[in-house]
Structure formats: C-alpha cells, structure tokens
Amino acid sequence: METSLEKQPYESTKEYGGFWLRFAAYLIDSIIVGIPLTILSIVIFMIFFGTSDAFNMMISDPSYMEAEMTDAETLAFMGSYFGALGVTFLVNLVAAVAYFAGLHASPWQGTVGKKLLGLKVTDLNGDRISFWRALGRYFAMAILSGICLIGFIIAAFTEKKQALHDLIAGTVVFKK
Predict the structure, then answer these.
(1) How many helices (H) and strands (E) does the chain have?
(2) Residues 38-90: pLDDT tens digits?
(3) pLDDT-based confidence at 8, cuts 50/70/90?
(4) Which of 41, 83, 144, 156 could bridge across to 19 with cysteines, CB 3.0–4.6 Å?
C-alpha cells in the first residue's frame, strides 16, 4: 500500500525560495564578497599607481596638477590606470565565479547567504547542480538578470519562484 506522500513529485513536497528571501541572501553575499574585493581593488590600484612617476609627482608637488603632462607622463599614467583596471577586473571575476558558481555546485548547494537563510539551489529534479551549470547560471545572472532588474523580478511572478537565470540554467531555489 502506497501513501499519498510517496506519490507526490519532489517539487510539490518542498517550498520554493521567494523573491524577498533570495534578495536578502544576495545582499548578504554581496557584503561577504564586496568588502574584501573592494579592499583588494584599492590595493591593486595603489600598487599600480605607486609605480607611476606621474602619480608620485602629483602627490609630492601640488603645483604639478596645474601644469600640462608630457606625452610620456600621460602614457605612464594611463598605462598604470588601465593595467590596474584590467587586473582588478580579472581578480573580481575569478573571485565572484569561485564564490557563486563554486558554492552553488558544492555540497552546500548555495552561497553563505543562501545557507544562512535556509535556501539551496538544485536542478529541476532536486539534485545538486554541476559546476558548469552553476557557472552558466552565474553568467546569466550577472549579464541578463541585472538588466533593469527584470530578471530578478520575474521570480516574484513565476510558479516555481524562478528568476531569469534559473529559467535559463534549469535550476530552482528551495527552502530547506
């Protein structure tokens, strides 16, 4: 004799993570990732600009800012700026991918924010997602869901509380 609980599909026995709970988890994650990356970005810029003669002259001689920079000084300054910008971008990208995609594919099945609020990311069958699916989910979130925040707002109106990046990656967020 089978009970009615055994006949129910996995999704119907679990509660989906709603918009505001997921928003709170993302806010926690943004603080956890954002503060260290901001500090690291400042350090990277200080290292790059510390090697620039133009920057050293600006700090040591206030009247230097009133004079026009030579072509060599301009190139050195711009080289330092774009070098720091490139390194900062790469470091931030690697850290964000490692944090979001890595933790979503881990046995935790979610980031620290999701873990604290009792949420976990699964595929549509309730199984743990692979790193590659988590990576696709992260890039869909970073690129598409951020446009006018529509991709995030969709979660408030879909049946399974899926945001645009969840629909693209075939994932769902459950309450534990």
Answers:
(1) 9, 2
(2) 999 999 988 888 766 666 666 677 676 667 777 887 787 788 889 999 999 99
(3) very low
(4) 156
In terms of phi and psi (left: phi > 0; alpha: psi -120 to 50; beta: otherwise), the region of 148 is: left
DSSP string, 22-42: HHHHHHHHHHHHHHHHHHHHH
* Strand (E) or helix (H) holding 121: strand 119-123
* Count of structural domains within the chain: 1
The CA distance from 135 to 102, in Å, is: 8
Residue pair 48/146 in contact (Cβ under 8 Å)? The answer is: no
Residue 62, in any domain of the structure: no
Instruction: Grade residue 1 by pLDDT with cuts at 50, 70 and 90.
Output: very low
Q: For residue 36, with 0-12 CB atoms within 10 Å meaning exposed, 13-18 middle and 19 or more buried, which class applies?
A: exposed
